[in-house]
Amino acid sequence: MKTTDNGSRGYLISIVMVAVLGGLLFGYDTAVISGAEKGLQAFFMEAKDFTYTNGWHGFTSASALIGCIIGSALSGFLATNLGRKRSLIVAGILFFVSALGSMNPEFLLFEHGQPSYSLLIVFNIYRVIGGVGVGLASAICPMYIGEVAPSNIRGMLVSWNQFAIIFGQLVVYFVNFFILGDHIQPLVEEMGRGLAAINPAAQWTVTTGWRYMFGSEAIPAGLFALLICFVPETPRYLVSIGRDDVAERILSKINGTLKARQILQDIKDTMVVKTERLMTYGWMCIFVGIMLSVFQQAVGINAVLYYAPRIFGDMGMENPMVITVFMGIINILFTLVAIFTVEKWGRKPLLIYGSLGMALGAFGVAVTFGHTGLELLTAASLLIYSASFMFSWGPICWVLIAEIFPNTIRGGAVAIAVAFQWIFNFIVSSTFVPMFNMHLSDGDDFGHWFTYGLYGVICLLAALFVWRLVPETKGKTLEDMTALWGRMKK
Questions:
Q1: Mean predicted confidence (pLDDT) in 38-46
Q2: Dihedral of the CA atoms 80, 82, 84, 86 (nearest 10)?
Q3: Is 157 within 8 Å of 478 (Cβ atoms)?
Q4: How wide is the angle at C-alpha 158 spanned by C-alphas 96 and 393, nearest 5°?
Q5: Which of 397, 416, 443, 462 sits a CA distance of 20 to 30 A from 139?
Q6: What local confidence, expressed as pLDDT, does residue 1 receive?
Q7: What does the angle CA 66 – CA 455 – CA 186 come to, to the nearest 5 degrees?
């Protein structure tokens, strides 16, 4: 591809677009459960050798997150030893295997269509395998983009990864909607009475529909695993393994020859010590990265994204999948707000305003949920809550995690931060349903207002944390972060 003294923007965009496919798969894999979980629940409730309880269903719905924790924890080791590119190839293969295995967990081992305890274990293993892929992609995709992008547009390009995550969720909402077609989801009260008692229009969803939903991921997963083979390794990783000549060629294609030499020298200056300990720049550096991840999940957003159809159904919406798709479109639009403002307004203002908007939406849901006549206000509050996340904590957290750590500890520090993110994702996702359904007495709405009231309080704490402790990184190079944390440690 032709380059100039300013580099080739087309080359940069092409490799970033391939990398963000990992983000799309991240969103696709984590949100596919939203359409499949009711059919899956009814299927395993047919098992004769064990009782598929609400606890089992909560675990099964969130089991991929266990893999996410494992994958994110391994991401630093793999990114450092295999490189960013090959680690993403591994993630793509794991996505592909998980999609096919989750669609047909009986493959070679069990009789098709006969639920059992052993089949549930195998199904969850396939979901965990996909989760490992998500964990790797969630840490390494923004790291990859951050390490190839020029500093003046890095925030915007990393934000496209979050756009891809939300787009992946929207795509799977549409895919689930079209797979469902004229069929319907089974009602909870029908499930315990066996398949014969379930509405005939819902029986296909129980036996087949959820399989197609999981299997549909194999198409984008295979495409990602193939395309990632054709992108270059990141210049910063190449410098770390002594491939300066290759790094300079890639930097020249992206930034132009003169700028490439300057960037290469800056990278080499911060790579002199390759074995710096994680705490070389002080505990605050790691603490800020961890807490960014913790707050991104503790505000409760994924409880809404994973269980959106169920939540809207509980609100009395006639077709919850339609409102779920509408929410996905709103999420896309507000993610674009972040993409086009992050380099103008900075990271901190977006996070603070988003936290306050989320708090308003969460408190609105807490006050109105379950009250007759206030359903539209509840839905509007949920949309405010979700939209506020999408222009703030959704993309900006990933931007900061990709750029806030010094070069010499970035792989390990990102792995720790992202591992905490998935740990709290699992905690929030697995506790939402039992917490939301808590009752102090028959018929009260204690769980409804407590759950969203708690999320609202956490949103306010998140705003305070960003205001007091998070440094602004707008316009700074990745090498600048070494000097910033070095000064803060003194």
A1: 90
A2: -170
A3: no
A4: 95
A5: 462
A6: 42
A7: 60
